[in-house]
């Protein structure tokens, strides 16, 4: 096969040029506009059998559509001596004199340009085409003949981080982020286009990009993340200084800064201008549905809020204090008293069940009901409306009250694989029968796999963060600042988790 | 056309209507693109590519046409589309149709 077409196509081009192809391709193959699609829908049928059949071809010589299956386009070509036709699914040119499709560089370029233009305007999707290295790229490849191959035993991607003075809170989060599969793919594919051109060395996303390069460069000596620390201090002032910080707080602050630095870069989506499309929101954002049900009229008012993480109470033995006042689950203000009764052990699933169960808001926290128009007692229930691609569970081990601050060392068992189906809004909604059946079918889609665990050792006053990360699908490593050591899955699951990172096993197509 | 339409069986007219709706809304292109991605991801495309290459190698490039190739690989190609992919596509078409008024 070559790109010079055939003698018949060449002679056709000298007589009529490329205009006939251009028109057919633009109107009936790309059909970018609404009218064009309408026209395509109404007129693309075989002129002989009057049916919409697959593999429809358009004659390049005259206005005629014929199907390939019943050989109507062949018949037309023979009777009228019109030997060239365009396949209307892919745009390939069939030469009936040669008896095969022929490929012409000029026509291929026209087709590609038309598609690119339409894709740019967001009218059609750009077809994924195989990588065609440019001469510059070929030269680069030849000058750098060393190819890195990842094997089961390769340690690429593992790198210790020097502690710069109580910076283990940062190191453990960096380890978790650099081993987040989708984030790694994004940065190693060099997808970040800096939005802070005049001040690029202040961009945290650029720094993260460099960090990924460092991690996956194959170098084994620990990396010194001083630039990152400096940027964090600059952009999140509350974390500046050499004091011990909370890893969870750092994680949220880091996401926030990265998210802000991504702004402007495809931040608007077609459907919703307020919806951010940055890599952080694509990966970490989920939707939490809050249903407040009036106890008088049973009327439900629903709000959906985005979230980056889920903070979970570890529960207490005294079966929930009698006044049911844990309204603010975001803070632990609900439980000022009787906090010594933490259970010895619980499970992540139990924590999630507690998180998503309907809760009576109590007589002291009446909320105005939209239907009754007066303040009523109500119940509130949180459920997952939209699952994030990466779910971060924050176990609330640090308890701050007016009287004391303490760490709860309750053992929380967490699974390697987690199914979130039973915490979905579609499941919990009594009136959402249709949603329920859909969730049923796609329940595989709600499965998650563990890939990183951040642990805190020590007390609330002084302690140390370490992190377990997953590599090569099923190998686990413990990252303790500059030290990396091999770990078993059991060690990970037995550890006192503080932050648990899960990623979705099935990704939806956008 | 009215006369012609009346003579066609009912389900055939329905099929055409659905096809037109799918094209008009651009849904057909979206689904095709999705299907393409899924078939690449599950390895179907690579497997078929190897198969096609073998046929070409065996016969010599001069003796194979696209139509020959299509005729030869189609049975295997059809049979090896994973059920999950077919099911997903069917579900998506169903969902799309249920959202269309006047169908």
From TrEMBL, chain A:
UniProt main location, coarse: nucleus
EC code: 3.4.19.12
Keywords for this protein: Hydrolase, Metal-binding, Nucleus, Protease, Thiol protease, Transcription, Transcription regulation, Ubl conjugation pathway, Zinc, Zinc-finger
UBP-type domain residues: 4-121
Keyword Transcription regulation: yes
Reaction equation(s) it catalyzes: Thiol-dependent hydrolysis of ester, thioester, amide, peptide and isopeptide bonds formed by the C-terminal Gly of ubiquitin (a 76-residue protein attached to proteins as an intracellular targeting signal)
Keyword Oxidoreductase (UniProt): no
CDD domains in alphabetical order: Peptidase_C19D
Subcellular location: Nucleus
InterPro entries: Papain-like_cys_pep_sf, Peptidase_C19_UCH, Ub_carboxyl-term_hydrolase, USP, USP_CS, Znf_RING/FYVE/PHD, Znf_UBP
Signal sequence range: none
Residue ranges constituting the USP domain according to the UniProt record: 159-505
Cited SUPFAM superfamilies: Cysteine proteinases, RING/U-box
Pfam families documented for this protein: UCH, zf-UBP
Domain of life: Eukaryota
Protein family according to the UniProt entry: Belongs to the peptidase C19 family. UBP8 subfamily.
Name of the molecule in the record: Ubiquitin carboxyl-terminal hydrolase
From TrEMBL, chain B:
Keyword 4Fe-4S (UniProt): no
Taxonomic source organism: Priapulus caudatus
Sequence similarity: Belongs to the ENY2 family.
Domain of life, source organism: Eukaryota
Function: Involved in mRNA export coupled transcription activation by association with both the TREX-2 and the SAGA complexes. The transcription regulatory histone acetylation (HAT) complex SAGA is a multiprotein complex that activates transcription by remodeling chromatin and mediating histone acetylation and deubiquitination. Within the SAGA complex, participates to a subcomplex that specifically deubiquitinates histones. The SAGA complex is recruited to specific gene promoters by activators, where it is required for transcription.
PANTHER family the UniProt entry points to: ENHANCER OF YELLOW 2 TRANSCRIPTION FACTOR
Gene: LOC106811035
Gene3D superfamilies in alphabetical order: 1.10.246.140
Taxonomic lineage from the root: Eukaryota, Metazoa, Ecdysozoa, Scalidophora, Priapulida
Protein name, entry field: Transcription and mRNA export factor ENY2
Subcellular locations according to the entry: Nucleus, Nucleoplasm
Keywords: Activator, Chromatin regulator, mRNA transport, Nucleus, Protein transport, Transcription, Transcription regulation, Translocation, Transport
InterPro entries from the UniProt entry: TF_ENY2, TF_EnY2_sf
Oligomer status and interactors: Component of the nuclear pore complex (NPC)-associated TREX-2 complex (transcription and export complex 2). Component of the SAGA transcription coactivator-HAT complex. Within the SAGA complex, participates to a subcomplex of SAGA called the DUB module (deubiquitination module).
